[in-house]
Amino acid sequence: MRAVIDRDEVLHVARLARLQLSEDEIEPMARELSAVLDHIATIAQLDLEDVAPTTHVVEVSGALRADEPRDSLPREVALAQAPAVSDNGFSVPSPQA
Amino acid sequence: MSDVEIIGLSAAEAAQGIASGELAAGELFEAYRARALEHVAQVGLNCFTWVAPGAPAEPSPGGDGAPGTQGGALHGVPQGGALHGVPLAVKDLFCTENVPSQSGSKILEGYLPPYTATAVSRLTGAGATLLGKTNQDEFAMGSSNENSACGPVLNPWNRERVPGGSSGGSAAAVAAGLAPWALGTDTGGSIRQPAALCGIVGLKPTYGAVSRYGMIAFASSLDQAGPLTRNVTDAALMLRHLVGRDERDATSLTFPEEIALPSAGRLDGIRLGVPKELTGGEGEGIEQGVLDAFNAALHRAGELGAEIVESVRLPHAPHALAAYYVLAPAEASSNLARFDGVRYGLRAERAEDLLDMYTRTRHDGFGPEVKRRIMLGTYALSSGYYDAYYGRAQRVRTKISEDFRTAFDQVDLIVTPTAPTVAFKLGEKTADPLAMYLNDFCTVPMSLAGIPAISIPCGLSEGLPVGLQIAGPAFSENRLLDAAHALELALGFDGSKARV
Q1: Which of B279, B363, B414, B450 is the most exposed place for a label (fewest CB within 10 A)?
Q2: What is the CATH classification number for the domain harbouring A29?
């Protein structure tokens, strides 16, 4: 597996990541991601046929607390750091221009 | 006591001095605050992103740690408490109520959290006082502290060199004597590697030992908080007050025993494993000077009674870095989705619509390394690549944990160099992300396995500190600290030269 990421793929992944890239960021990103993925490709050589994936490193049981209502952040505290607020809520631009 | 004498005290000694009445908590706090402020004013090492505005006020009563109710605890003068008012530096990414917490990122510029991280409130609850917030790589992504929106941190041993990262501000502040001790976080080596490069002690606890509540997340299955200190006793003292189950972090655990202050002076009967995969035999690019200091320390360990076992193997450890650079960016790409300009932090102006606002905010707010990791993680999780990257990396992680379990049947502890090199020059590795990632070669395997590991200074190479890493099975912190203490005594490393 030799991973080479081209310009189109960079733009596709950036769209998935909700990340705008400047024109001068695209080519270095393609080159750097390709180099890192090339290193990562070493794990393709390993025989991992019957190996279970790790989902958690330390066994935890009974981690759930009782499902009881409790106070959370007051509305004005939750909204205090927002860039824009209207009608007691977070304000955002229209989904469609 | 003179300021020089005060700064010369370890955290444990300072706590003792206050308890016995030889030292006033306010005097101690002011001595450090004056030094920290002087450094901020003169640019200095750039360790701090925020310094407490004044002497701590009287404590406010109550405050059980519920969100929005613990304002007084951060600034209050502790009345007694095991830590007796010893000042604490805290890595920027820990949320501290009404105190700037931006995780080294422009996207969180000006953010004032409405609550405090459990790790911080545990320590202030035990009597520590918040001295300042420390600089770090943006969102803890980096090994040199050059990826910070607040500028790079300089290494107090040599100002042309990096302090390591991502807890670079915490490590440099402790090494330079600008704080008695500091709280950091470690995802793939971010406590241990800067501790090594700055000549201090850094401990990454067992995953789950310390609550992650209130830490601005990087990779949730790996992130752990831990101490950066001048000596092993201080690391044990801080860890004692950090560990414990927190219902706000479902992955946190009750630590099975109390953390003891270490007393061991010998290593009789301790089997120390030296896996060739991480110690130069087959390891990648470990400097000769680092190997020399490491081997000299091993020799001392033998003289202290340890049995050095060179036949121990970690066959999958050389693949840990590759697995880590799939898993950590994958988790980061998901965790960092929350920075979208809606609820806090930066928002790009003049957006055409909602999507445009998201993508431009993230373009403007994230630095190059964070963008790279978000892209890498998004790619690894995207349709068609998930099994080849994320799925395989999770299986490699299982093999690495199995390797450690097998090794710990044969030995008590595993020792390696902490980092392959001493502190490198500012700018030396910024152009090559992969070269930067290789700094984590010796620390990432323990992170993937979730096991504890400590770095202690073991000597100098080119006049710069070298770190020795000791790792043990999950929850073996007491044994780890004891062994580190015995070695620390025998090695007699003098860190006072870095104090400014």
Answers
A1: B363
A2: 1.10.20.60
B48-51, strands of its sheet edge to edge: B48-51, B129-134, B87-91, B181-186, B224-229, B201-204, B453-461, B464-471, B413-417, B271-273, B307-309
In a domain, A75, yes or no: no
Partner residue opposite B394 with nearest CB, options A22, A54, A93: A54
Domain assignment present for residue A21? The answer is: yes
pLDDT band at B214 (very low <50, low <70, confident <90, very high): very high
Question: What digits encode the pLDDT tens for the residues B95-144?
Answer: 999 999 999 999 999 999 999 999 999 999 999 999 999 999 999 999 99
* Chain B residue numbers touching A52 (CB-CB < 8 A): 395, 398
ipTM, 2 dp: 0.95
Domains of chain B: 3-242 (3.90.1300.10), 272-312+403-475 (no CATH), 322-387 (no CATH)
Single pTM value for the model: 0.95
A11 near B CB under 8 A: no
In a domain, A79, yes or no: no
Residue A66 sits at the chain B interface (C-beta within 8 Å): no
Are the Cβ atoms of A40 and B326 closer than 8 angstroms? yes
Which residues have a Cβ under 8 Å from the Cβ of B181 and sit 6 or more positions away? B11, B86, B88, B89, B174, B227, B228, B229, B230, B234, B238
Q: How far apart are CA B165 and CA B190, in angstroms?
A: 5
Residues of chain A with C-beta less than 8 angstroms from the C-beta of B114: 73, 77-78, 80-81
Domain membership of residue A3 (yes or no) is yes
Q: What is the pLDDT of residues A46-76, one digit of tens each?
A: 999 999 999 888 877 777 888 999 998 999 9
